[in-house]
């Protein structure tokens, strides 16, 4: 904990996916003269094992940004391309889950639209890159508690009394952002009566790069292919049943996984711990204030039904790097409000649409009403027969639609 005031050009509170990627992006775009401080409650380490066993579905656009930042090469060996998608919609006790929609998950350029990357590899790559960069400095362990700003700068207050001075403060603090609250920015949103369960399984037969989404009455059960004959399960379950399932012994827990899996890849064995997350959706009413910006889950939280939270965080990063770099090169102050307002215009509407869409998808599919089921079967069957609609779904999954920041196109800023 620093006792004197440390000075930076940009301070980022939260050194997870969004915060670390932003530090890498700004440093690459603006060079070593831009001094960046990264606050986190935990000391970042490359060697320490990462307890979080999630694997993330990263879009082709996110992959392009990681490529430009020199990070993709650090995760490429463990990144599993997803080349096809299968979607089913059935009751829990159905033995075989009939496929209602299937498509090739490949863009017009022949690139996989999605890659599954283990959290441990992605975190390690980001940390390694930041630790190797002398213009980026970790201030950890420390918690940002408040800030004060004026025309000339912003001061970030840390627990224990430390102060960091900067021109711009970015909160990348995840869903319960303390600085968002300190900024007086309200959120709209709600908790889901569902829990996200994550585990890893090994299976007898290869997955062939196929990701499967079983829509079940309690919520989506996603089978995300990993390298080798393994898959990461991201499973949304009714909260009461989730508590029961999480308390089972390994054998009974595996039986619950097996019941939902649909027998697609032969016999299953557990290959990692089980973990759980409460699920919520939220959207900040504003993304910026004087010398202040929100990115990632601090700005918006989405249901994991489409595996897009991190991709949205990377879209924020790419947009903020671009507006700040353009503005600083024109001679404006790092915390220029016009540049921040441009970032907000670029990102808020887009993330509002995503938040509403994923909330709607979860509501539409997470129920067992027969009328709804018939409607869904009809809808998915229709999409299955219309190549243009499948093409649209692939473009959305690849994150290549809308006004793309340069990093997401694979260009330097
Ligand atoms: C079950 C599940 C599955 C998911 N699967 C996918 C997927 O497949 N694809 C995808 O794109 N997304 C997925 N997501 C979403 C993804 O995990 C999040 O969108 C992503 O983690 C957001 O990153 P972030 O950097 O904004 O915040 P976080 O990862 O939440 O990190 C916040 C950081 O801030 C630090 N911090 C917080 N407050 C302070 C403070 N006051 N001072 C100092 N430090 C602080 C914390 O220690 C932490 O390091 C999933 C989410 C869940 C729950």
Distance between the termini: 34 Å
Strand fraction equals 25-35%
Relative helix content: 25-40%
Tally of contiguous helical segments: 11
Can you walk through the features of this model?
This protein is α/β, with parallel strands linked by helices and about 425 residues long. It contains eleven helices and 22 strands. It has helices spanning about 15-30, 60-70, 70-75, 120-130, 180, 240-245, 250-260, 310-330, 335-365, 370-385, 385-400; strands at about 5, 10-15, 35-40, 55-60, 80, 85-90, 100-105, 115-120, 135-140, 145-150, 155-160, 165, 170, 185-205, 210-215, 220-225, 230-240, 270, 275-285, 290, 290-295, 300. Strands 6, 7, 14, 15, 16, 17, 18, 19 and 22 form a nine-stranded mixed sheet that branches. β11 and β12 form a beta hairpin. The longest helix has 29 residues, at about 335-365. The model has no long low-confidence stretch (mean pLDDT about 95).
Descriptors for this entry?
29% strand, 35% helix, nine-stranded mixed sheet, 413 residues, 22 strands, 11 helices
Quick rundown:
The chain is of the alpha/beta class and 413 residues long. It has helices spanning 17-30, 60-68, 72-75, 119-131, 178-182, 239-246, 250-261, 309-329, 337-365, 370-385, 387-398, and strands spanning 6-7, 10-13, 36-39, 55-59, 80-82, 84-89, 99-104, 114-118, 136-139, 144-149, 154-158, 163-166, 168-171, 187-203, 210-216, 219-226, 230-238, 268-270, 275-284, 288-289, 292-294, 300-301.
Spell out the blueprint of helices and strands.
Layout: E1 6-7, E2 10-13, H1 17-30, E3 36-39, E4 55-59, H2 60-68, H3 72-75, E5 80-82, E6 84-89, E7 99-104, E8 114-118, H4 119-131, E9 136-139, E10 144-149, E11 154-158, E12 163-166, E13 168-171, H5 178-182, E14 187-203, E15 210-216, E16 219-226, E17 230-238, H6 239-246, H7 250-261, E18 268-270, E19 275-284, E20 288-289, E21 292-294, E22 300-301, H8 309-329, H9 337-365, H10 370-385, H11 387-398
Parallel strand pairs: 1-12, 2-3, 2-13, 3-9, 6-15, 13-21
Antiparallel strand pairs: 4-8, 5-8, 6-7, 10-11, 11-12, 14-17, 14-18, 14-19, 15-16, 16-17, 19-22, 20-21
Helix pairs in contact: 1-4, 1-8, 8-9
The structure holds flavin-adenine dinucleotide.
Flavin-adenine dinucleotide binds at residues 13-19, 39-42, 54, 56-57, 143-144, 172-174, 178, 196, 198, 234, 277, 296-298, 304, 307-311, 313.
């Amino acid at each position: 904990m620093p006792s004197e005031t440390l000075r930076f050009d940009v301070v980022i509170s939260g050194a997870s996916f969004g915060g670390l990627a932003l530090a890498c992006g700004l440093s690459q775009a603006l060079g070593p003269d831009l001094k960046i401080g990264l606050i986190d409650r935990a000391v970042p380490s490359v060697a320490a094992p990462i307890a979080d066993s999630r694997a993330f579905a990263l879009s082709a656009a996110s992959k392009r940004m990681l490529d430009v930042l020199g990070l993709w090469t650090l995760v490429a060996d463990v990144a599993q391309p997803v080349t096809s998608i299968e979607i089913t919609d059935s009751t829990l006790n159905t033995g075989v889950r009939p496929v209602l929609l299937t498509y090739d998950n490949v863009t017009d350029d022949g690139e996989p639209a999605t890659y599954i990357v283990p959290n441990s590899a992605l975190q390690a790559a980001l940390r390694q890159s930041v630790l190797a960069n002398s213009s980026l400095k970790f201030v950890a362990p420390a918690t940002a508690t408040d800030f004060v700003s004026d025309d000339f700068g912003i001061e970030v207050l840390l627990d224990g009394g430390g102060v960091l001075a900067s021109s711009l403060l970015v909160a990348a603090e995840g869903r319960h952002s303390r600085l968002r609250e300190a900024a007086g920015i309200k959120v709209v949103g709600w908790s889901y009566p569902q829990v996200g369960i994550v585990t890893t399984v090994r299976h007898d037969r290869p997955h062939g790069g196929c990701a499967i989404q079983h829509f079940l009455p309690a919520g989506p059960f996603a089978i995300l292919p990993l390298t080798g004959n393994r898959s990461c399960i991201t499973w949304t379950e009714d909260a009461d049943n989730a508590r029961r399932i999480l308390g089972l012994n390994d054998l009974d827990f595996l039986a619950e996984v097996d019941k939902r899996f649909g027998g697609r890849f032969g016999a299953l064995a557990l290959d990692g711990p089980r973990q759980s997350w409460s699920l919520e959706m939220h959207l900040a009413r504003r993304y910026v204030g004087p010398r202040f910006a929100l990115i990632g889950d601090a700005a918006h939280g989405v249901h994991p039904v489409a595996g897009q939270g991190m991709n949205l965080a990377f879209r924020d990063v790419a947009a903020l790097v671009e507006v700040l770099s353009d503005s600083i090169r024109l001679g404006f102050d790092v915390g220029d409000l016009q540049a921040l307002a441009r970032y907000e215009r670029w990102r808020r509407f887009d993330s509002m649409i995503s938040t509403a869409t994923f909330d709607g998808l979860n509501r539409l599919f997470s129920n067992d009403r027969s009328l709804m089921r018939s409607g869904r079967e009809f809808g998915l069957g229709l999409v299955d027969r219309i190549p243009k609609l499948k093409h649209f779904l692939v473009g959305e999954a690849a994150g290549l639609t809308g006004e793309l920041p340069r990093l997401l196109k694979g260009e330097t800023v």
